[in-house]
Amino acid sequence: MKAQQQVFPSLASYNQALNDLGARRIGHRVLAISAAGTPSFTGRQAKREGSWHSHHRGQLMCVKDGLLHVRTTHGSWAVPPGRAAWVPPGVPHAVNSNGVSHSWHLYLSPAASRPMPPRPCVIEVNPLIEDIVPRAVLWTAQERLDAAQGRLMAVLIDELASAPHDRMQLPIPRDRRLLRIATAILDNPADTRTRDEWAAWAGLSSRTLTRLFQEEVRISFAQWREQAALMAAVDRLAHGESVASVADALGYATPSGFIAMFRRHFGEPPARYFASQ
């Protein structure tokens, strides 16, 4: 007999269910949960900020609308619809959501997590994954899976492990001076200060800023600033702002310059990228 999909009476009860699944040491290799039907998710919500935590199981988070921001000690990720954030078992993380009304989460046992990437990342969610997840949501942690369900779970794990990685990653520097600069840029990606001006503001030389950024985050300061602008752009575009408005807010002289930057990172212009979600 199939289990009925749970409806959670409140956001707090849903969050508790997430924590319970993440901590579960017995049960299926993959446990699934969806926020569909939860009263707190029936409309687009204001921003919600989560606290730092970790799970015994690996966690995969996907939203159908709005945007997730996932923070770990490795960096920050923007997760638009059609993508999923992967956090391996035991990795501390915090999740902020903006405008999310429907999401699903998968919790993979440590054994099922082994084929997955060893570090946090964002993966693309293909139609097969989207088809299997609603079925997995119906499988309670206590029930025994039949042969067909077991095969579906194996396919799901294989699809997740082979899914392409998204490039929407923003590594966070640890040096306190670089972190000060990074935080200020994230607060205002349109800030037009030059590298020399940022270095002077943080109390280090321009050469030291360049060297430390390359050492700590493995990309140049200019590349990091562009990634920060891209994260801000995805957030705004996911909430319905026009390309022209986003380009202007991020300091681009024309929309074409912003579109070129977006295409360089994602291989397609914003309209096509979001249409595919």
TrEMBL record:
Q: Would the keyword Coiled coil be found if you checked this record's keyword annotation?
A: no
Q: Which SUPFAM superfamilies match?
A: Homeodomain-like, RmlC-like cupins
| SMART domains noted in UniProt | HTH_ARAC (SM00342)
> Which is one GO molecular function term here?
sequence-specific DNA binding
Q: Know the name of this protein?
A: Helix-turn-helix domain-containing protein
Could you tell me the keywords of this UniProt record?
Answer: DNA-binding, Repressor, Transcription, Transcription regulation
Question: For the HTH araC/xylS-type domain, which residue ranges apply?
Answer: 179-276
